[in-house]
Amino acid sequence: MTGLAARTADTAPTAVFTGIGVTAPNGVGTEDWWAATLAGKSGIDEIGGFDARTYPSRLAGEVKDFDAAEHLPARLVVETSRMSHFALVATAMALDDAAVDPASTPEYTMGVVTANASGGAEFGQRELQKLWRGGPRDVSPYMSIAWFYAATTGQISIRYGMRGPCGVAVAEQAGGLDALGQARRVVRSGAALVVTGGTDSSLSPAGFVSQLPTGLLTTVTDPLRAYQPFGTEASGYVPGEGGAILVLEDAAAARRRGAGRPYGELAGYAAAFDPRPGSGRPPALARCLRTALDDARLRPEDVDVVFADGHGTPGHDREEARALAEVFGPHGVPVTVPKTMTGRLYAGGGALDAAAALLALRDQVVPPTVHVTRPDPGHGLDLVLGQPREIPLRTAVVVARGHGGFTAVTVLRRTG
Amino acid sequence: MRPMDVAITGIGVMAPGGLGREAFWDRVLSGRAATRRVTFFDPAGFRCQVAAEADFDPAAHGLTPQEVRRMDRAAQLAVAATDEALADGGLDLSELDPGRTAVTVGNAVGCTTGLEQEYRVLSDDGRQWSVDHTFAVPQLYGYLVPSSIAAEVAWRAGAEGPASVVSSGCTSGIDALGQAAELLAEGSADVVVAGSTDAPISPITMACFDAIKATSTYNDDPEHACRPFDRGRRGLVLGEGAAMFVLEPTARARRRGARIYARILGYAGRANGFHMTGLRADGREMAEAITAALDQARLNPQDIDYVNAHGSGTRQNDRHETAAVKTSLGERAHEVPMSSIKAVVGHSLGAIGSIEAAACALAIERGAVPPTANLRERDPECDLDYVPLTAREQRVDAVLSVGSGFGGFQSALVLAAPDKAAA
């Protein structure tokens, strides 16, 4: 074997985040996005990418003013879809942020694990249209490599010569955290570095309309009132696009290459699945939170902030609030939902929340939840509303729940 | 690398020409191809008009009308295979801890068949770009997000532990089993219902493979359209299907006195970091994956009694993996039988890795090596023992199964008999 040293469980390396790249509806570039997030600047607006005026839901968090060709080689832009554009641009930022030079890092010690929820919707719709209007010979040869769920991981691996273990996690909104958990497994199996996180874009007409039958998207048309998780006016969620890519490293390997101070450690992770509908059994989240804390060898009182899933529909909000109260006690921990500024990014959502949590640990400030006019007092949450909250932060929990019952929790811990 | 020792205690297979584990095994041993002219739609106008279709009726496999409507074909196949595996595994579901039961489903192209059908209606066969939302059916979101497949399997098994779809293209079927074994090795679950599924025989997927000229053009001879390692091979033939397994730590399986088909002892994946569809001739990354998987299994090349090849029947693949096996197994490469079942069941993308693992587990349990069908004249560049045409009865204690896919992913899985000792 070249470079992948065998390790046993009791010497499992510590996995730390050393780089962040963001392409989000309220900011492209990690620091621009973070400044916007702290300022409460929202990227939710009327859909501009296509005509949504006839649809019952008309809002989205689109990444505007994003021209992939400004950041990527022309050939790569053509052979990939928008979800991969976001990831490739974010990866370049994250590697730059981590000051990693892939070309001088042993190839089999670098892995790539990304999340994806719905594939390259706009690329897929375009080629389906060509097929059904013109015939099979009109379909682009890039369709076979652009739309599928593994496209992003494959392209990152190829662009940077990362030839170690790779993977693709698919669990709707929970997948973004599952990717981080799988990336940590890859680090523990001996890899030095894993590019991980997630991005999604399903904002083509067919991609958007495919989301409507769940009845979970808000039909409110005022961007300032549409997505109100844990609020008395919760009416559903707004979908978005984009996400975040993170560099996760073996802490010892990062030290050896002279990396700067990591953003934080991936100290705990757990995944679970809700009971079959109608079973009467409790949702998985409280159990998943406890498992993740056990994994991090921490107690609920060690947690300084929770980045909640914040679905924005009354039923889901109630379930999540109940689990948080059960584990942390009523009003037991500050809770925030910065995705009120982006919408739900599906596979990109958990990754972006992890990025926000890492920057919160760095800057000792909790980003706000916006647009929630009246938090539902029945939820018993200490929601960080309107303004950022400066408090000492050592440990952050990130929650992501995916449609159907997918549940994932990560525990992020400030290092040093 | 953490050691893994995972028992396969239940197997369910839905494959072309073989619905159900026993029918599948008979079919792959027979070497009779299940490839035929496409019947699911009119393939006229397509470059490749052949596929390995399963004559699968979900109602005959116990799915209710609402389940049939709710699930795309990929999920239906997975659920039918799950039911068979659970029954075969002899698990008492009421005695399992739901939170310690996990689900890992490999899948490459999601619910593409259902998505395409519904897209045609939404867009009126592509006439509208701004599609008509009033034609959106309730199950459409489940088609958009293939995680719905893992949800269906989890509901079937009453699983409330970690659940996910592993979607690394054509190695998904191996990677799902590898990740399931990792979950058990790290102690995150007691039992994993794992495997993979795909149902890609639809116009858009056939057109995708046409566009890159990866599929066979033997349209006038459908049963001999896929010819792995043969001089006259012209490409792969798409297939569909699912294989699901009950996996548990070997120690647990022994405690409950379960029948153990085989054990998963090693898994590794590498990427070629080279090209999304192209392969480097030397097969270096696949060789790396094989060596790493053998190391984890603590087995030597000499221990391997059978290699289940990716053997897709494309010109570049068969050369590539022949080189990879030579590099990683050394002298043993020239002695060990190595066959591909894809000439019989087709290449079912994300599903095939698990379907092949089912063949490997049954080869170990029953002491037989399936043949490479349609291999009449070996390509001079492919100079190993590919078990042409006829199955062989022989003792099989350890098996290597490999996969290769778009994105440059290369995966290897090592399985061994219940009583096989480490080297």
TrEMBL record, chain A:
Any GO MF annotation of the entry: 3-oxoacyl-[acyl-carrier-protein] synthase activity
Ketosynthase family 3 (KS3) domain segment(s): 12-414
Gene Ontology biological process terms in this record: fatty acid biosynthetic process
Domain of life: Bacteria
UniProt keywords, alphabetically: Acyltransferase, Transferase
InterPro entries linked: Beta-ketoacyl_synthase (IPR000794), Ketoacyl_synth_C (IPR014031), Ketoacyl_synth_N (IPR014030), PKS_Beta-ketoAc_synthase_dom (IPR020841), Thiolase-like (IPR016039)
Broad class of enzyme this protein falls into: transferase
E.C. number(s) listed in UniProt: 2.3.1.-
Stated family: Belongs to the thiolase-like superfamily. Beta-ketoacyl-ACP synthases family.
PANTHER family hit by this protein: POLYKETIDE BETA-KETOACYL SYNTHASE 2-RELATED, POLYKETIDE SYNTHASE-RELATED
Protein's name in the database: Act minimal PKS chain-length factor (CLF/KS beta)
Protein species of origin: Streptomyces olivoverticillatus
